[in-house]
Amino acid sequence: MPMIIVGEKINTSRKFIAQAVERKDARAIQGVARAQADAGAHYIDVNAGTFLGKEAEYLSWLVETVQAAVDRPLCLDSPDPRAIENALDVHKGEAMINSISLEKERYDALLPVVAGRPCKVVALCMARTSMPTSAQERIDVAAELIEGLTGAGVKPDNIFVDPLVQPVSVDVRMGPAILDAIAGVMTRFPGVQTICGLSNISFGLPLRRQINRHFLVLAMARGLSAAILDPTDSELMASLLTAEMLLGQDEYCSAFIEAYEQGLLAINR
Amino acid sequence: MTIDLNPLSEAVIKGNIQAATQETQKALDGGGDPQTILDQGLIAAMDIVGQRFAAGAMFVPQMLRSAKTMQACVALLKPAFQAGTVSSKGTVVMGTVKADLHDIGKNLVAMMLEGAGFTIIDMGVDVLPEAFVQTVSEKSPEILGMSALLSTTMPAMKATIDALKDAGLRDKVKVMIGGAPVTAKFAGEIGADRYAPDAGSAVAAAKELLQTS
Are A202 and A260 found together in one domain? Predict the structure, then answer.
């Protein structure tokens, strides 16, 4: 199975996006959406989390604006169940909801929403009262979330477990804990998928893009099925394609060779 | 008699626990004043660490290592202080707000403030506004620091500030806030005194608020 790519660039924590959203500059947003779709994104993430009080309104606007330009489902990225529900109302196709967790309010509010319609859901390994540290804690949270979601009628292959990526700069054991959690979820819960963002891993360190790139490859080797990333980052995408080939997911190495022939892998210029 | 505290500072900056604790012991054995060792050896070193970190010349793991080194040295100094004689730059009550479990940023800020000579009361995560108010009322800190990593939990910062007002405590304490979605603009809107984007600037902001160095 090739990796499912979620394009992360439409996030109001980025200044350019925040300004475009505030001005309701649809063309600017659509340009970023198209660039990501053209670069291979299967989903386009939309996040308006920095707009307190207006997040729900802006998220819905982003959904309509992006889907007017690209024929892709979106990843609705918000901790606020109300913002997600509003966005779902205007979304076309099967959205990915990012995310549900064991935090009670979020869980209770989102479970009926995801159970009531065909959609993908990210199950974030955040426990009820603390952040997980070990792989086992992450897998335990995942098990509970999977049980709750499937019990409510969500199909296993619509569940994407996010192991909750935390920086290695504060604790070097985070790397193995996250990677082991990915492997653990993929072997213990057949059909369930795994997903993560990359950038949290490199917080507090130099050369963040290089760290993110290597982390992606290591996570893929442990079975990661989807990633939230910048698909317009050619070096990152070159690593992704190469890893897919090495993991036996690129029949006759055709995607790799095609990308080479199009000059997409010429990262050393 | 003067004791050379430069090797101690160097060891703290490098995060070399063994060398730093040896230097601390050496300074104590040589009759060094514990307050001087603390101020000129340890806190001075952490000031440099904070500045280098803020300038992007040092990274989080190095900062953590230096902070841990300092803590080991402070543990050696403690018995040498008579009860109540350690001078503190001020007390900071800190916590992650209600319904928010993220603690990495808050812990980094607490560690650096401690390294700068502040006394830290860390209330952990998911701290209710009324719990903040109670601790401010009981401990009379100079500063209250709040962290939030989610757009959904940021309003708890405002709720806490409002609760401080209702309790008649708002003018008794400076309020600093931070966290990924938090901005200086938001700090202004909810009536916080300062926003700090990272641990290094949090130390500078705290010193500015209390007008100490």
Answer: no
Say what the pLDDT of residue A269 is: 47
* H or E stretch covering A4: strand A4-11
Nearest chain B residue to A105 by CA: give it: B99
ipTM surpassing 0.90, yes or no?
Answer: no
- In angstroms, what separates the C-alpha of A3 from chain B's closest C-alpha? 28
The CATH fold of domain B6-80: 1.10.1240
Q: Are A112 and A196 in a shared domain?
A: yes
What is the number of other CB atoms lying within 10 angstroms of the CB of residue B30?
11
| A126 neighbors A132 (Cβ within 8 angstroms) | yes
Tally of domains in chain A:
2
B107 lies within 8 A of chain A by CB:
yes
Residue A52: the pLDDT is 81
pLDDT tens sequence across A231-265: 999 999 999 999 999 999 999 999 999 999 988 88
Q: Residue A128 and residue A102: Cα distance in Å, rounded?
A: 5
B124 CB near a chain A CB, below 8 Å? no
CATH 3.50.50.60 at B91-210, yes or no: no
Query: CA-CA distance, A143 to A192, in Å (whole number)?
Result: 11
Q: What is the pTM of this model?
A: 0.92
Nearest C-alpha in B relative to A50? B181
Q: Residue A223: which of A198, A193, A253, A189 has the closest Cα? A: A193
Q: Long-range contacts for A60-67 (Cβ within 8 Å, ≥24 apart)?
A: A60/A86, A60/A87, A60/A89, A60/A90, A61/A21, A61/A24, A62/A10, A62/A21, A62/A29, A62/A87, A63/A87, A63/A90, A63/A91, A64/A90, A65/A26, A65/A29, A65/A30, A65/A33, A66/A10, A66/A29, A66/A30, A66/A33, A67/A91, A67/A92
Show the CA angle centred on residue B116, arms to residues B110 and B122, nearest 5°.
20
